[in-house]
Amino acid sequence: MKIKVCLVQVEPVVGSIPKNIEKIRDVIESYTADLYVFPELFLVGYTVKDAMYKLALSTSSKHVEELKKLTKRNGVGLIVGFPELTSLGYIYNSILAIDEEGNIFLYRKRHLPTFSVFDEHRWFKQYKGAIKPWNFKGIGVGLAICYDMFFPEIFKTYMLRGAKLHVVISASPDSSLPLFHTLSTARALETTSYLIWVNTVGILDGLTFAGGSRVVNPLGNIVEQLKVYEEDVKIVTIDINEVHRCRVVRPVIKDSMREDAEELLRAYNEFESLV
């Protein structure tokens, strides 16, 4: 099976959901693909700060309904970051994934950075619940957001639950670009899966977001690399059958052991008892 994925590295209009939806519509109408991937918090812009409370969207909001109609009308899938307003009033930093029939799937960021220029705990609740791949056109897709990529347990879980493609969306400043490039290769290799990383671009609230989005194949080779410091849109064809061939060459799943995970859990318990 092959799918065409459109990596959309464009600068959001900070604070304007309607204008960012218009950007999404323009890309979908200008590029032919099966799945379109936009960066972290693209619907509002990463740097809206306390306006996040005002801009957060419930999944029943008119803006989400508009995106559902857009994907269904065009018969395409969409992955985009947004602040998700829950019924109890708190907010998650989430991925809104919509399939070609307008069905919604959510992923909520697990690891919220609170170092350097980041203060995500101020606005968002950390998600600690179960995770499972999104089923898009029969393909298991593991979703994650930015800092989550530093935690390989997430991607190992997705792999063992059937994911063959990982999609990570980001709002990473230029200083972190080399780190995410290294991690994207590592996460693809250790799960023998395709990995797509789509990063924000532009200067937002004095922060420079570098772009540099990329696609890595299951053996760690760079399939596509987008421009640095510039808007860029690229379509990449992902051959899911290639995953099986790579897993024969590099049998990570076959050689994975539950005992390793049990040792990790014991180490966590020992670590927590020392704190």
Q: In words, what does this structure look like?
A:
The chain is an alpha/beta fold and 275 residues long. Helix content is 31%, strand content 28%. It has a single domain, classed as 4-Layer Sandwich (Nitrilase/N-carbamoyl-D-aminoacid amidohydrolase), CATH 3.60.110.10. The strands form three sheets. It has a six-stranded mixed sheet with strand order 5-4-3-2-1-14. Helix 1 (17-30) packs parallel to helix 3 (62-74). It is globular.
Per DSSP E runs of 2 or more residues, the count of β-strands stands at 14
- Overall 3D form: globular
Q: Report on the biggest sheet.
A: 6 strands, mixed
What's the CATH C level?
Answer: Alpha Beta
Measured by DSSP, the beta-strand proportion falls in: 25-35%
Mean pLDDT: 97
* Number of domains as seen in the coordinates: 1
CATH homologous superfamily (4th level) name = Carbon-nitrogen hydrolase
Per the CATH scheme, the topology name is Nitrilase/N-carbamoyl-D-aminoacid amidohydrolase
As residue ranges, the low-confidence spans are none
Output the helix-strand order.
Answer: EHEHHEEEEEHEHEEEEEEHHH
Describe the strand arrangement of the main beta sheet, using strand numbers.
5-4-3-2-1-14
Radius of gyration: 18 Å
Helix/sheet category: alpha/beta
